[in-house]
Design goal:
Transcription Termination Factor Rho, Rna-binding Domain, Chain A, Domain 1, alpha/beta, 35% helix, 6-stranded mixed β-sheet, Ribosomal Protein L4, Chain: A, 326 residues
Amino acid sequence: MTKKSQNKELPNIRVPDVRKARKAQLQEWCEALGLDSAGKVDELRKRLMSFLESEEYLILEEEEAPELPERKKGQVYLYSLKGGIIKVIDLPPIFRTEIRPDLIKRAVDAFRANRRQPYGPSPLSGLKHSVSWWGKGRGVSRVPRLMDSRRAAQAPGTVGGRRAHPPRPERDWSKKLNKKERRLARASALAAIAVPDLVAERGHRFKDRLTLPVVVEEKVEELGGTKEALDLLQSLGVYEDVERSSVRKVRAGRGKARGRRYRRKKGPLVVLSRGCLGERAFRNLTGVDVVDPSGLNAEVLAPGGMPGRLTLLSQKALEELREWSP
């Protein structure tokens, strides 16, 4: 590192920003970091990427990071709208519940099964033909044939015929789950959102020093626009996860031809008080789900049955969870 970069304040640069930046911005960052700012865009980008991943830059980041207030197990930081730490608060007792991935998976499977819509063909599908049976002894297969032709019809395996074993609309797809099991699965999924390793294992992206779940002051419920919500997510260090969930990919397999061609990853979960203004600020972000404490369940907290969703709670919503029993 040169003396030129040591005199200037170290800019906050992220890898996704480098990939999207143009030449003027890349040159400005190179000058601030004391790197060579000459060359083409691809050369500047490679130079910056290699420096951001080097130990030299990581050491500088650690030196400039402010000291965080001490906290004990079961405590998290209360963040302001600008991303600063206000104080240390205790998590509700429900976050001390034992994490049961098997129970969470059962609850999520039950939620999905109970939403499944029965389907099946019409009772007369494949039977709308005028057919007759020729009988035995003609050296041909014993299937119904059209009245004015030799062509087989109506039987399974024939053109335009009925299906041999179609799905039945009367089939019951629902699954039962005891009330206590459902509540325990919800409590277990809540406890999982406070474990950084599980949240990172799901693929969520967030700052290393961020305490989970992310608890924000009550003013977050007064945000009126999506731009204010984006500014908050950027200041907290979870906006990269919103970008990750906004990427749309083509589904693999036959689902492309069955009305579900594209798929997206799940982004952060935002928990606010019921009927607050802040719901409008977050609900238009792709991949972000907004619920109130009464809408929390195992499927919302652990999509797909995999516990550890990145969750942002308002201070008021967190206080409502203190009344829940583990």
